[in-house]
């Protein structure tokens, strides 16, 4: 079974617990901290993946490092240790956040542009695409990419809206080539 499928199962379980207790925002904040710790501390990953370290030692270490998180977040981490699945922590966090956002009508978008977008431009993109996607809120992450030349490329989930000059030129070229045949 792939890691993403397994991560989704853990995320669904934690999401259902959080929904039942109405603490999804708290769980998201905690999971983002957990994710940052795992992302930025390579020695932690090495320690937790070391077969010579007992699961009891790993659990005790996790309890001490994440002593301020909720019982639900801590229990999820401890369960991942029991199941030898600490390698899916990042995927589980991403899946949880995606589920939480979806349940609240929120989507994340990466907007690639040649320069930093102004607040007005960002707001216009949010309004247009939130309506188009039938969601409440669109969170925009602006990524400056000088190779774009002009226009925008927007990625929301697995959908890509490409209005860059480069893509428009390719389409024009294809039309000209097929028209000349």
TrEMBL record:
Transmembrane segments: none
Xref: Pfam families: OSCP
Gene Ontology MF terms: proton-transporting ATP synthase activity, rotational mechanism
Keyword vocabulary terms for this entry: ATP synthesis, Cell membrane, CF(1), Hydrogen ion transport, Ion transport, Membrane, Transport
Subcellular location: Cell membrane; Membrane
SUPFAM superfamilies to which the protein is assigned, alphabetical: N-terminal domain of the delta subunit of the F1F0-ATP synthase
GO CC, one annotated term: proton-transporting ATP synthase complex
Membrane topology according to the record: Peripheral membrane protein
Family in the record: Belongs to the ATPase delta chain family.
Biological role: F(1)F(0) ATP synthase produces ATP from ADP in the presence of a proton or sodium gradient. F-type ATPases consist of two structural domains, F(1) containing the extramembraneous catalytic core and F(0) containing the membrane proton channel, linked together by a central stalk and a peripheral stalk. During catalysis, ATP synthesis in the catalytic domain of F(1) is coupled via a rotary mechanism of the central stalk subunits to proton translocation.
Official protein name in the record: ATP synthase subunit delta
Organism: Filobacillus milosensis
